[in-house]
Amino acid sequence: MSRLQWRRWVGLVPVLLGLATGCGGGPGPGSAGGADDNVYLETFGEDYRMYTIAKKKPPRKIEDMKALGNIVSPAVEAARKGDIVVQWGAALPDTQEEPGQTSAPEILAYGKDVPEKGGYVLHLDRTVTQMTSEEFKAAPKAAGDPEQSGGKTGKAK
């Protein structure tokens, strides 16, 4: 197991334990910069990468992620519920295991409250950083259309 995969699963243990015991596991994605948001976005970035490798193209909508079956994490469910907003159809600059190998500062995904309150964002190079709402508004977004909730479907360009 790689260092990235190990961090991903170790970081998700408290969230998964919270879900298993019936509690919410904290505020979850979309809260104003909570530590869980960082883990959810890192995990979502890995799921997005895995889909891109498997299908040789980026996912264009949340339903595409179902093709990964059991590999999909709770972060994908957060995107389905609208807690994570995604620029669907955005192509990753690389699919290497470690994120940040090719600089791509455009925003791929973010917690739903980030535009108003600031918080963590997932960049196209799969790195996660924290931004204020002003920084977020000025930052470039990845090519694609955001999908706000499970009821809306974005069409990729």
3D structure, described in words:
The chain is of the alpha+beta class. It has five helices and five strands, in the order H-H-H-E-E-H-E-E-H-E. A five-stranded antiparallel β-sheet has the order 4-3-2-1-5. Strand 3 (119-123) and strand 4 form a beta hairpin. Helix 1 crosses helix 2. The radius of gyration is 14 Å and the shape is globular.
Short description:
The protein has helices spanning 3-21, 35-55, 74-81, 114-117, 133-138, and strands at 84-88, 107-111, 119-123, 128-131, 145-147.
Topology:
Blueprint: H1 3-21, H2 35-55, H3 74-81, E1 84-88, E2 107-111, H4 114-117, E3 119-123, E4 128-131, H5 133-138, E5 145-147
Antiparallel strand pairs: 1-2, 1-5, 2-3, 3-4
Please tag this protein with its features.
single chain; 157 residues; alpha+beta; 5-stranded antiparallel sheet; 5 helices; 5 strands; disordered C terminus
